[in-house]
UniProtKB/TrEMBL annotation:
This is HTH-type transcriptional regulatory protein gabR. Gene3D superfamilies: Type I PLP-dependent aspartate aminotransferase-like (Major domain) (3.40.640.10), Winged helix-like DNA-binding domain superfamily/Winged helix DNA-binding domain (1.10.10.10). In the C-terminal section; belongs to the class-I pyridoxal-phosphate-dependent aminotransferase family. The gene is gabR_2. It comes from the Bacteria. InterPro entries: Aminotransferase_I/II_large, HTH_trans_reg/aminotransferase, PyrdxlP-dep_Trfase, PyrdxlP-dep_Trfase_major, Tscrpt_reg_HTH_GntR, WH-like_DNA-bd_sf, WH_DNA-bd_sf. One of its GO terms (molecular function) is DNA binding. Residues 19-87 form the HTH gntR-type domain. PANTHER family: HTH-TYPE TRANSCRIPTIONAL REGULATORY PROTEIN GABR. SMART domains: HTH_GNTR. It comes from Cedecea lapagei. Keywords: DNA-binding, Pyridoxal phosphate, Transcription, Transcription regulation.
């Protein structure tokens, strides 16, 4: 820290114009104290050290330190050093404030139209942990000690290439581990070189959109859909057409006036409604994409958590050489702060998109990727998912029972397929779900309004309620608070 102080004072000295060196040094130190660059209780460099760093006489530094002590800016503690005082002299602080208020006004910032649109549609919650937060797993249930041991061992003697930029789409160990895991668990057909490691789904969508779309190209998305996809498309000047979702998933139009460049779908567990795309719809969508030269972007965000019935295989593996870009993430299975996702690239896109990823984002996190690869290949990942399925299954059942008991069975999700990490509490059409969510959020109940996930005027009303991160012992009390926030909705018997 003291070396940094020396750098700061050296810069400030060059900004001072007084002929006398000791006055320039005094002004530089005083100004740094007044503007907070040298904070209260912060230690100044020893006079000998600062003199050496500034290449000036130590007597000059001592003279300035003594002047600052006399005026009450700093204090000397025997055997400890010289420190900035907590309370500064009033007359100098007032003068500083007057000077600052008379400074030139900060110029008004000009944000692009795309940026203004993004800021007007902000959907990411400033809080990402609390009762009923959707899409967040129980991060406390992750085996942190085990994963930390793997990381520590790998970090003891890391190879130099693991500490530099990654230009190959990720570490080979994690790419190999994902090929085996995805083939067995999701029916994905791919080779090692088709795996690209990203910092989550947002980066993957941004890369695909930038590389496959020109300005003004058309993309189909689900209605309703994840807000993150819409924001990325808009920021890349891609036009959006929302297509309705029913119990069988996205509904492709019978007649196509303009072929889309990209088709975004969540076929295994539609977000946010929860529908599973039928086999007939999947086959139809694949045929349509091939016929019109479109790319399907399959977002398989939480397919690991299905609590009954047979697993739903990925759309990517239904036919050979499918025109599908498959995207997955570890945010739901492990924890969001890991910021690791992956893309299975169709063979024609492998070289171009991996090169673009290295140019745009400069891949890294190689040591964590290597640790995660070992976590997967040793069987810890599959074991963790099995444990979480049991845990989340119990919590889902508990929340389902609460909704049915206090709001009636009609309040349960229309497309309840017993999967995912959230439920939808249906509300009457005349209900203001945005206002309910705002009231609940103010009381630390972090539900989200379903209507905000729609683009068109035909918006269903409801609340997205996550259950993964909330123990059953805390769920009923939190649900009681939520009921107090929704007087417009019809409730059965409120909990005591």
């Amino acid at each position: 820290m003291r070396d940094l102080v020396g750098d700061l004072i050296l810069v400030r000295l060059q900004e001072e114009s007084d002929i006398l060196l000791h006055k320039r040094l005094y002004n530089a130190l005083r100004r740094s104290i007044l503007d907070g660059s040298l904070p209260p209780h912060g230690r100044l460099p020893a006079s000998r050290d600062l003199a050496s760093e500034l290449n000036i006489s130590r007597n000059t530094v001592l003279t300035v330190y003594e002047q600052l002590m006399t005026e009450g800016y700093v204090a000397s503690r025997q055997g400890s050093g010289t420190f900035v005082e907590k309370t500064l002299p009033d007359r100098f602080t007032s003068a500083s404030t007057i000077g600052e208020s008379g400074a030139d006004p900060v110029p008004e910032v000009s944000i692009s139209r795309r940026g203004q649109h993004l800021l007007s549609q902000v959907s990411a919650s400033p809080r990402q942990w609390g009762a009923f937060i959707p899409g967040v797993p129980d991060v406390n249930a992750f085996p942190h000690p085990l994963f930390s041991k793997i990381q520590a061992r790998i970090s003891r003697r890391p190879k130099p290439e693991r500490l530099s930029y990654s230009c190959n789409g990720g570490t080979p160990e994690l790419q190999h581990a994902l090929v085996d895991y995805l083939r067995v668990s999701r029916g994905v057909n791919c080779q090692v070189d088709q795996i690209l490691i990203t910092e989550g789904i947002h980066q993957a969508i941004d890369l695909v959109t930038r590389m496959l779309c020109d300005r003004g190209d058309l993309a189909w998305i689900e209605e309703p859909s994840y807000w993150g996809i819409r924001h990325v498309l808009t920021m890349n000047d891609v036009r959006i057409t929302p297509l309705a979702v029913d119990a069988n998933g996205l509904c492709p139009p019978e007649a196509i006036a303009e072929a889309p460049r990209l088709i975004f779908v969540t076929p295994s567990h539609q977000y946010p409604l929860g529908a599973v795309m039928s086999l007939e719809r999947r086959q139809r969508l694949l045929a349509l994409a091939r016929q019109h030269g479109s790319w399907i972007i399959e977002d398989d965000y939480d397919s690991e958590f299905r609590f009954s019935g047979q697993p739903i295989p990925a759309l990517q593996g239904l036919v050979a050489e499918a025109p599908v870009v498959y995207i997955g993430t570890f945010s739901k299975t492990l924890y969001p702060g890991l910021r690791l996702g992956y893309v299975v690239l169709p063979r024609p896109l492998v070289n171009d998109l991996k090169t673009a990823h290295a140019e745009l984002y400069r891949g890294g996190h190689s040591l964590i990727q290597q640790a995660l690869a070992e976590f997967i290949t040793a069987g810890h990942y599959s074991a963790h998912i099995r444990r979480m399925r049991l845990l989340y299954g119990r919590r889902r059942a508990f929340l389902t029972e609460l909704i049915a008991r206090y709001c009636g069975p009609q309040a349960l999700s229309d497309f309840s397929d017993n999967a995912g990490l959230h439920l939808i509490l249906n509300l009457p059409d005349e209900t203001d779900d945005v206002a309910i969510a705002q009231r609940a959020n103010a009381r630390n109940i972090l539900v989200r309004p379903l209507s905000r996930y729609y683009l068109t005027g035909q918006r269903k009303k409801g609340l997205l309620m996550g259950f993964a991160s909330l123990p059953e012992s805390e769920m009923e009390a939190a649900f009681a608070v939520l009921l107090e926030c929704m007087p417009e909705a019809k409730k059965q018997n409120a909990p005591a």
